[in-house]
Amino acid sequence: MTKRRSSRRRVLDALRAVRPAPTPLPELPPAGPPAGVAAFLDAAERAGAVAEVLAGGEAGLRARLAAYAPWVTARRVVSVVPGLPGAETPGGASDHPHTFADVDVAVVRAEFGVAENGALWFGAEDVPHRAVYLLAQHLIAVVPAEEIVADLHAAYERIGSAEESVAAQSWRGFIAGPSKTADIEQALVIGAHGPRSLLICLV
Amino acid sequence: MTASGHPDRAALFYEDPERVRWHDQAIWAVRQNRDRGAAAVPEWESLRQTAAEIKAHTLSRLPDYLEEFEDRAARLGVVVHWASDANDHNTIVHGLLRDHGVTRAVKSKSMLSEECGLNAFLEARGIEVIDTDLGERIVQLRNEPPSHIVMPAIHLRREEIGELFHREFGSEEGLSDPDALVEVARDQLRRQFLEAEAGLTGVNFAIAETGGLVVVTNEGNADLGTALPRLHIASMGLEKVIPRLGDLGVFLRLLARSATGQALSVYTSHFHGPAPGGELHVVLVDNGRSGLLAREPMRQALSCIRCGACLNTCPVYRRSGGHSYGTPVAGPIGAVLSPARDIEAHATLPKACTLCGSCADVCPVKIDLPRALTVLRADAVRAERGGTRTRWASWLGSQLLRRPGWTRLAARLGRRLLHGVPSAWLERDPRMRGRVLPEVAEKSFRELWRERRDEASQ
To answer: How far apart are CA B334 and CA B303, in angstroms?
Structure first.
């Protein structure tokens, strides 16, 4: 404990000894003008996702899934969207995250999308463990079509607002497309450690 | 020129010219992706300016923001540790792992852990650390350091990775298809993730205002590595703190576009406090950063967000490879960070530069790398022990250039003598290998000008 405290003192003293002349903190850039769903769909596809606007609410979602190969061939599906045939509702937080290791498809909800980069904003609130987002072989994300913001400036205005209170949950994050790597000769490979595909359903 | 200098290590890379050509082109392609990413944002230049100003402001009040971060993070249940050097950092991380009975940990990419030599420290104490970024895992299995901060295994060809996986994992011999190789690694690493007892990560940004940490990856390895075990230890350099949540909008719009041309990396995780039932520790590391803060223009190197754009654009880096620098961070930024702390150990790095200025043009936070490299060259000359050659040559040059008559005389002598210089003599400097002197003009520009003027007036 004394060791830790003395390191803290040492570091802060070293920094205070060399404090450079103050410079002002600039204003943040304004959010871009509202962007349409089309821009989001484009950006999401560029990030390697399949992104579609589905009509007909949950019936529309069920119809789409019936024609979606990863869904059709899946052995284990977990879904936070109720009423999907064959899907289990993920258990409570008492479940060990490892229990999701063999999930083939997970259906999750995103709060909003970002038009400039195709990213979705997730909070771990509806899933018992955020491991679900990563362990599933294929991820399906449902997001309301009206919840698209223009860019990251708009996104952080929203995330930083009092109602959202980003710090209220231990994990929240953007996911833009399926996991990927280019670490072998810069060749892009989809499906690194996380999901091999991402289907985004705007409803 | 010491035997372990940049030119000698670059010469090793040059033993395989085909690899050099491929490396140069592969990395140039990444630079071109960056250009497309930047061009897609009309306000790119003003974003860079804002980013540079946020960083400059933060550095001017660094201790205040670190204390604000510490306070907010502690209120969320994060345990904040301070480390004044690499050994301090390693000791803290090891102590935490030991106290939790951890024998196997997974680690996502952290240049800081490379800088501190964390893996070797933990392995010597019986704790197995598995690097989980694919490129990092590849170089870890080869027992070598990463050669690029974003693409750690960019110096390797697919066939070499296939051989490595065959040897280490028993995958099919001769496998070289990237998709198939990634599948092998995914399967291997998935097991490691499920068995790990702790997840170690770096930190891209620490938010003073909220006490949050932001970690960015494309593979999802930092997320998977921290979502399964109960213990998450995040190590960060002091300079990673930013004042406001909203500053992320500026930095994240620049980061991935500058790194790979992507609009955003796949995973951008915001950690605010430990997961339910888990523990989150953050280690704030100085290790020479307070010293860097003391001096302009080297201070600006603390603004770096580790995108790798300066490496990708650098004509020297692309043709000499990351290992030629012999430092945890290669390329122009590495040639500032390491020599700024210890010029004697890294005297050749500021000279591994053509002063073309491209690194400053692509840097998303506008670090004046060419100026820092120029200042460090002067430091290198001053630090050179017994090596008075450079100093004499510089003195002679300044005497000549101050006197136009002497300069003309020296140039005339040079035009006569350069013809006869044997190339073997020039090639004693490894940087001259493979080069030829340009043909020396018969007459100086001055003489030609005078002749033309006389002809015109006749």
So the answer is: 13
**B305 falls in which pLDDT band (50, 70, 90)?**
very high
Distance CA B331, CA B353 (A): 9
Structure tokens at A112: 């909003």
Residue B17 forms part of a structural domain: no
Q: How far is CA B409 from the centre of its chain?
A: 44
B62–A contact, CB cutoff 8 A: yes
Q: Do residues B433 and B319 both lie within one domain?
A: no
Cβ under 8 Å to A: B residues 371-390? none
Pairing of strands A138-143, A105-109: parallel
In degrees and rounded to multiples of 5, residue A192 shows phi and psi of -85, -85
Residues 148-187 of chain B with CB under 8 A from chain A are 151-154, 156-158, 161, 178-179, 181-183, 186
Positions of E strands within B55-110: 79-83, 104-107
- Six-digit token string for A84: 């999907």
Residue B181 CA to residue B184 CA, distance in Å, equals: 5
- Whether residue B363 is contained in a domain is answered as yes
Average pLDDT over residues A55-70: 94
Give the model confidence (pLDDT) of B71-123 as tens digits: 999 999 999 999 999 999 999 999 999 999 999 999 998 999 999 999 999 99
How many folded domains does chain B comprise?
Answer: 3
Q: What is the ipTM of this complex?
A: 0.96
| Structure tokens given for B397 | 């040059």
Structural domain span for residue B146: 44-287
Structure-token match 């932001």, residue found:
B214
Distance CA B120, CA B129 (A): 9
Rounded to whole angstroms, the Cα distance separating B110 from B30 reads 21
Distance CA B300, CA B304 (A): 8
Q: Do A144 and A54 meet the contact criterion of CB atoms below 8 Å apart?
A: no
| CA distance linking residue B214 with residue B205, whole number of Å | 5
Q: Which residues pair with A122 in a beta bridge?
A: A173
> Would you say the C-alpha torsion B207, B212, B213, B216 has a positive or negative sign?
negative
Which of B383, B412, B432 finishes a domain? B383
Residue B2 pLDDT exceeds 80: no
Partners of residue B81 on adjacent β-strands? B283
Domain A26-202 architecture:
3-Layer(aba) Sandwich (3.40)
pTM of the model as a whole: 0.94
Q: What is the mean pLDDT of residues A127-133?
A: 90
Residues near A135 by beta carbon (within 8 Å), at least 6 away in sequence: A97, A100, A101, A103, A106, B224
Residue with tokens 């913001």: A149
Q: B400 — contact with chain A (CB < 8 Å)? A: no
Convert the pLDDT of each residue in B209-232 to its tens digit. Answer: 999 999 999 999 999 999 999 999
Inter-chain residue contact B267 with A175, CB threshold 8 Å: yes
Phi and psi at residue B280, to the nearest 5°: -125, 120
Q: Are B68 and B78 in contact (CB under 8 A)?
A: no
